[in-house]
Please model this.
Amino acid sequence: MHFLKCATICLGAAFLVASAYVVKKGDTLWDLSDEFLHDPFAWPDLWENNRHIQDPHWIYPGDSIYFGDSINAEHRQSTGKAHTYPCAAATPDSSLPKGVSAVGCDENDARNGDFESMLGDLRSRDKKKKKVVSKDEYYYQKRPAPKIFNGYYQVLAPEVLSLDSLKKMKNYFSIRSGERKEPIIHIPENEVVVGIGKKTNQNLKKGDIVEIIDARAINVPTVRGVNFEKYALLRLAGYAKITAIGDTLSRAQIVQSFREIKISQSKARLKEPLKTLNVSSYEDVKESNVDSMAVIRYSMDPMLIIGAYSYILVDKGIKQQYNTGDAVAIWELDKSDATIPPRLLGRGVVARSGENESAVLIHEIYSNNRRIEVGHRVSITHKAQLAQ
Model:
């Protein structure tokens, strides 16, 4: 036993003199750098000191690894300088082949330069660089512009009118059920009676299409949110085709529905051609001021819950450069600290513009636990370029 301890000590001393380590099964340059150099990220330097290792990812049992000046401190102190390569720093080892003074110094054992060039600069690649960002600057990655502007966005977009303006519009007329037993909700193939005939419109004929409009009064909060203003919310509910014409009334059959058709809260009008916009491209809006952003005033969906493909009403329109087809982003401001940048909640597109208000269709929501709500801000991110 005493002999084995002596042999172990002698072998350890020889290792220190030669500054070499014999690779065992399972060793890697990463682990050896961590154990002997106390820095696993120094493995490229260890590989550099051992020119006989072709591939740093493959070392084999029995290979000799030279640790250089990190371990051979006595030699560094005696010479007064540190060396990079083993040939200049290692103590001659009599056990090596004739003509080789230290590990990795054999001319026939040199590394293939082409292979090393292919791997590139491993030192800079392996070191983790910290990105320094100024605390006073904030960045957000812009999403690409919408790929298309669908005409259905305009067709199905709701309209918000004042009650007085709706009463003055002569193109709307009454609608009631034509069924013997009136259903709660009308569906295609149900019959309706509309308040238009030969005496009110001489050009009326069989086959004309009537738009069924869901019309109801809504209370919209003012900009400051203190009081409410009454408006009429109009949404296309379906189409009906004229089947029989009288003097003041006509029968029609429902041919298509887009939502629940409740006759008790519906109006009708003859279908007119809608000039849908053709958006050819989009132009980026580089920045937006929080104070100039629009404010969400109303959610136009049932239960007032704003989700994907919901419509919202914002308090800016054509006069404020919020035009049909423009892409927008929805933001939440942090009321606790005005200096914190707003949080991006979702994206949408202006589906229908009025003079001072717009209907926006939400098509992306980024957070499941942060809902878009009345009072959140809306900014334009891309201006629609219309085809001439």
